[in-house]
Amino acid sequence: VPAEKTIQSTAQELHVGGWAFDRRLNTSPEKVNIQIASIDRKVIKIYVATRGTKRPDVVKALNAPGAELSGFNVLVPPNELVSGDYEIVVLQDLSNGTLACSNMRELKVK
Known about the structure:
There is one protein chain. This protein has one helix at 56-62; strands spanning 6-8, 14-19, 31-38, 44-48, 50-53, 71-76, 84-94, 97-109. The relative contact order is 0.34. Helices cover 6% and strands 51% of the residues. The mean pLDDT is 89. The protein is elongated. The chain is built from 1 helix and 8 strands, in the order E-E-E-E-E-H-E-E-E. The strands form 2 sheets. Strands 1-8-7-3-4 form a 5-stranded mixed sheet, with no helix packed on it. A hairpin with a 2-residue loop joins strand 7 (84-94) and strand 8. It is mostly beta strands.
């Protein structure tokens, strides 16, 4: 996920990546979506993440072999977002519902 207060050009592709893992069930979520919403909530877009990226760092940090394929990636096409301030939220579809995780970092698109 972009670093704190990242500035992104509207003309550039935006890459959002990270990991999602349920330690209780020792598994990655069935589906991961990325919600990019303007701070004023006038723009809300949801992108389906590509899952299954190898994350040996997560396996090591959590001591969880089941987290090996917990990585995800989303590429937002150029000019998809208008200028403004956005929040990125990871939406994880779990067996008992959807978990929304925000890193509380702001994305500024110019």
